[in-house]
Amino acid sequence: MSLPQSLRTSVIPEELELIACQELIEIVPFVAMDKTVFISGEFGPLKPPIKSRIPLWMALNLKAKKKCRILAPDWMNVEYLQDRLNRETTQPEFSDLPFRFAEISRILLDAAPDDIDNVDKLRSLLKDLREARQSKSREGLAKLDHSELSLPNLCSMEINEIRPVFIRSMGVMTQLVRTPAQDP
């Protein structure tokens, strides 16, 4: 959802992707490495061909140096995403997806398309899924009630997109509720 600069009061998608890079992901290392200690924790040791779980940022760095193969998360496959798309288009509630699915899928499809099966189909499904969820978000905002809003299963990118509109809408609704009705 593209918003004008005046409505952007939250983080930009690139910042959300940076946050998503802290998520752990599986790799198959091509080189052996001892345990590495970072502020965020210890990772390793890496021993080919044993799978390892490391932060996405580290996997991207190793991938760029051709020192590993990134394994797509369990949810990043055609069957799972097709099922979620079917649920999105047939059920009123949002389907359950990983909180940072939009950011992680974009990063992986951009940085490691050679490590992922059915890249074109995945891109298409993710685009369709995103559009279906955006449509539901717009419908939900149209039905906004000042007393309660429940949108379970929204991902971080979707929350970030509706936050500015929601904040302004709730502010206006609160003012309308507080303002006593005037008789004409």
Automatic annotation (TrEMBL):
PANTHER family: DNA REPLICATION COMPLEX GINS PROTEIN PSF2. Component of the GINS complex. The keyword Flavoprotein does not apply. Pfam families: PSF2_N (PF25005), Sld5 (PF05916). It comes from the Eukaryota. It is found in: Nucleus. It comes from Hohenbuehelia grisea. This is DNA replication complex GINS protein PSF2. Its main location: nucleus. SUPFAM superfamilies: GINS helical bundle-like, PriA/YqbF domain. Residues 13-71 form the DNA replication complex GINS protein PSF2 N-terminal domain. Keywords: DNA replication, Nucleus. Residues 75-175 form the GINS subunit domain. Belongs to the GINS2/PSF2 family. The keyword Nucleus applies.
